[in-house]
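Quick one:
INPUT:
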């Protein structure tokens, strides 16, 4: 990134972002960011409280209290910690993208409703013919995983050379690592299935609507307030997908073209599909073990040292600061871990974070489109272990150089006055 290139910051969503977030919500069909200003405003308020809780070093997951027969999405997120991130160009007036993180989605007494796809083998002895069928069954998940959601970028910033969509997506894993006790052992991502140009779902029209007399949009919106109608109206037994048209069957577990990059990114992080799908559109649910994700394992806390020049940096990644009153800011930047273990950034990065020397920061060494002082982009992500050992390695190298100089000095004295011929390297 050049010296005069714009810097982009991820921060917590604020009420001033409401108009922009409402416009973004109309671009996609996300259940966790519906085109409803009142619901989005409620999420922003809950997010503010959650960031303050994180700033006060919360030691546990904010769990739902009391059973609920069919609480909607809004109720479930209100009972948990929800973090709404937005990304903006520094000193601009509005955000250009957003993502969400819910500490625990549901739990005992607050099940999440989905379809579990299973296979059934049939065999006729007299015909000596066997068949295999895929069936869908209503599944109530009460494990209460941490959930990712609400990832949207303004169309003009998709495919940006600074990989801004990736930044606002990965910030969630960075934050989970820094406040690990606030999140669950499993992370869930509900991915968007293919949707028609009219914002309809072939799966819903061919299956869901046969049992629930609502349009796809109506059912989706009503889920914000209740999900009880799903368990009451959907069949309890096997639903044979072989009865559906081939084009509809093919959409179960698949995602639309706009969601494919997000799916690949998450699968590269270790997320897997285990046959659970959305009961409305058949979109896949993919999960990962929180502590097995490399970005979570590699993230660490460090104290900010004095600023340095870009030429002195030797690593790159995501660096963030969370103030005592819950203001969160993060940047993609080059940095250096000095001999004392201090995290050293450029003055521009310090200004973007609104941070001073001595403040505690979070750091995730990783591949980002930022040049270090070496004059090239980081090709191999540094690890937390490597960062901690940086000062030890430096002291060892210094000691080795000192030893070599002493040996060279002794040898020089012995061969003084004699002509020494250097050997050619083999």
């Amino acid at each position: 990134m050049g010296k005069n290139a714009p810097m982009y910051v991820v921060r917590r969503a604020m009420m001033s972002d409401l108009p922009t977030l409402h416009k973004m919500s109309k671009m996609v069909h996300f259940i966790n960011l519906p085109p409803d200003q009142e619901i989005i405003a409620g999420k922003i308020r809950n997010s503010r409280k959650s960031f303050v809780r994180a700033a006060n070093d919360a030691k546990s997951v904010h769990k739902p209290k009391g059973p609920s027969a069919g609480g909607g999405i809004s109720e479930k997120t209100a009972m948990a910690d929800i973090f709404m991130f937005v990304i903006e160009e520094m000193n601009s007036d509005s955000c250009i993208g957003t993502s969400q993180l819910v500490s625990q989605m549901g739990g005992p007494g607050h099940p999440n409703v989905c379809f579990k796809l299973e296979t059934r083998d049939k065999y006729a002895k007299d015909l000596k013919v066997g068949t295999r069928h895929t069936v869908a069954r209503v599944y109530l998940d009460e494990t209460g995983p941490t959930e990712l959601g609400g990832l949207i970028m303004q169309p003009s910033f998709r495919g940006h050379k600074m990989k801004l969509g990736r930044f606002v997506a990965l910030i969630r894993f960075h934050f989970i690592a820094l406040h690990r006790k606030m999140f669950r052992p499993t992370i869930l991502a509900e991915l968007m299935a293919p949707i028609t140009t009219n914002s309809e779902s072939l799966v819903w029209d061919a299956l869901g609507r046969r049992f629930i007399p609502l349009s796809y949009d109506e059912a989706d919106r009503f889920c914000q307030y209740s999900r009880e109608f799903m368990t009451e109206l959907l069949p309890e037994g096997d639903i044979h997908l072989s009865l559906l048209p081939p084009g509809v069957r093919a959409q179960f577990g698949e995602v639309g073209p706009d969601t494919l990059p997000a799916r690949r990114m998450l699968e590269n992080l270790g997320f897997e599909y285990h046959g659970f799908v959305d009961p409305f559109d058949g979109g896949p649910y993919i999960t990962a073990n929180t502590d097995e994700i490399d970005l979570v394992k590699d993230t660490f806390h460090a104290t900010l040292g004095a600023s340095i020049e870009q030429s002195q940096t030797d690593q790159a990644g995501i660096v963030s600061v969370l103030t005592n009153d819950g203001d969160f800011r993060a940047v993609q930047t080059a940095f250096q871990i000095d001999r004392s273990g201090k995290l050293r950034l450029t003055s521009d990065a310090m200004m973007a974070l609104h941070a001073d020397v001595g403040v505690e920061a979070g750091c995730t060494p990783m591949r980002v489109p930022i040049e270090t002082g070496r004059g090239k982009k980081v090709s191999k992500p540094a690890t937390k272990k490597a960062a901690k050992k940086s000062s030890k390695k430096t002291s060892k190298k210094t000691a080795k150089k000192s030893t070599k100089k002493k040996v060279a000095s002794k040898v020089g004295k012995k061969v003084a006055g004699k002509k020494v011929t250097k050997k050619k390297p083999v």
